[in-house]
Amino acid sequence: MTTPTATGHRREHADGVYCEWTRTFRAPIEDVWAAVTEPQRLARWLGTWTGDPASGEVKFQMIFEGEMPPERFRIDECDAPRLLRVTTSMPYDGEEPEHWQLRLDLTEEGGVTTLVFAQNVPDPTMAESVGPGWDYYLDRLVAAETDRDPAAVNFDDYYPALSEHYRQEFGRA
């Protein structure tokens, strides 16, 4: 594995400040959509979900974070295979759950699909851990979709090594 690069950037959206990452795939948009939405494909690089998306929410379980409780993911908007907006609800030790907005936008041109993934960052201090974390997971996605072993992507190569980029990106340097 080569040394990872921080790829996320601060972006303003109508509903707040986000950190945004871009990945490209030589694959049809429907295939990339399946990689980020189908439970068995998602499980190769991030986690899995259960439930009925038509109900407006699913239970999401991170697979590579140790013993994490399942999270409620509310599906705010879905226009398959181009757009997905989700609000997470992450419980922490009986405290009020944290809510994060996730944005996935996909476009295809000339057989290349671009995924733009974003997470809201209401507190700039979040960026120094959220940033390296999503670089790690999105690199696992790329590995899974290019027939490489996602397990070869090592979180210790990302955090804390990439944190400084995100501190600077979010004005915390």
TrEMBL record:
Pfam families: AHSA1 (PF08327). Residues 26-143 form the Activator of Hsp90 ATPase homologue 1/2-like C-terminal domain. Gene3D superfamilies: 3.30.530.20. It comes from the Bacteria. SUPFAM superfamilies: Bet v1-like. Belongs to the AHA1 family. This is Uncharacterized protein YndB with AHSA1/START domain. It comes from Nocardia fluminea. The lineage of its organism: Bacteria, Bacillati, Actinomycetota, Actinomycetes, Mycobacteriales.
